[in-house]
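Morning run. Coffee first, then this:
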Amino acid sequence: MKPFNPHRKSQQLRRFKPTRKPAGIFSVGIVFSDAALLALAFFLAVSPFIMQPGINITLPASPFTGGAQFGSMILSITRSGGFYFKDDRLDVSRLAEVLEDAATGDPGATLIIEADELVPVGAVVAAWNAALGAGISEVSIATRNAAKMEEIP
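And here it is:
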C-alpha cells in the first residue's frame, strides 16, 4: 500500500501538458508588421503638415486660387531677401545656376515662388527671370487664401 501523499493533486497539476500549442513566431511577426504599417500610415498622413524649419514667410492674401501640381519645385524668398531652394540658402548670383540644374533634372516641373509680403517686387522679378532663363516654362506665385469679409448688417 502506498503511503498517503497530501500533495498528490498539486503534483498532477504541475505536470499538466497543454493541448494547444503556441502560435510561434508567426503571430509575433503579424503584431510587428501591424505596428509598422500603422506607424507608416501615421507618418504619411502627417508629412504634408511639416513645414520647412527656419524659413518664416507671411504670404500675401489673394482671392484667386490656382493649382500647382504635386512635386513642384519651391523657391522661398524671406523678408531679408534670402533665397531658399531645396532647403539650401542661395544668393542671387547662384540662383540661376541652381535653377538650371534643377530644370535639367526635372524638365516638366513647375516652380512655385513663395515670397514674403514685405519682399520687394524686384527680388520676386529677379527670381522669376532667373527661372525663365534656366528653362523653367511654368512659374507660379504662392499666396494664402484671403479671409472672407464679414458682412455688417
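Residues 61-145 form a domain with the Nucleotidyltransferase; domain 5 fold (CATH 3.30.420.270). Good start to the day.
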